[in-house]
Write the structure tokens for this entry.
Amino acid sequence: MPEVMFAGPDGRLEGRYHHSSAPNAPLALVLHPHPLHGGTMNNRITYAMYRAFEKMGFSVMRYNSRGVGRSQGRYDGGIGEISDAAAALDWMQMINPNASGLWIAGYSFGAFVGMQLLMRRPEITGWISVAPPANHYDFGFLAPCPCGGLMIAGENDELVPEPAVRKLVDKLNTQKGVSVDYRIFKGADHVFANQAEQVAEALEDHVSTVMNRKTLALAAD
């Protein structure tokens, strides 16, 4: 998986990018947890999601937000990090102008950044949010949420209690045309220490289901 450096709004950003051999392959961008709590693109859950998309034939990128690893700049409370994510997306879209779809996947703080990006980029076709910090940030900006996605919570998450995530899911599911695939992992805490493979499998299951449904819908037309 080649290392890439690309221009961000606050300096150069470091990433890892896999280019699919399939023509017009869909794109996926994977976002890491909180940089002030050790979150990097090499986080186990971030890496597991990256590999899952690669396995499914996507062109996929994970990257370090500003101030992490070899990425320039400094942590910016989430605002600048959303701009970093947009820059990563721009870079991928420049290389893949005819991509057949675009997915955003984020874990913890990365899930918050990913959902913010979702509201800014109408071309995003699906999303994965693992342990979205629904008790730390106001997700009221998802009104209306442009499309459904997969949300995963840990049953024993001490940082983001499952009921907080469930409340967010229930709110999104009341919106017209939005259906959230909600999965609670038994025994999992916030770090999903033994569930990286399970996260990857849930991602593959959800993404393939959504993509197959779209293919059938197009065939019916």
Q: What stands out?
A: The two ends are 38 Å apart (CA to CA).
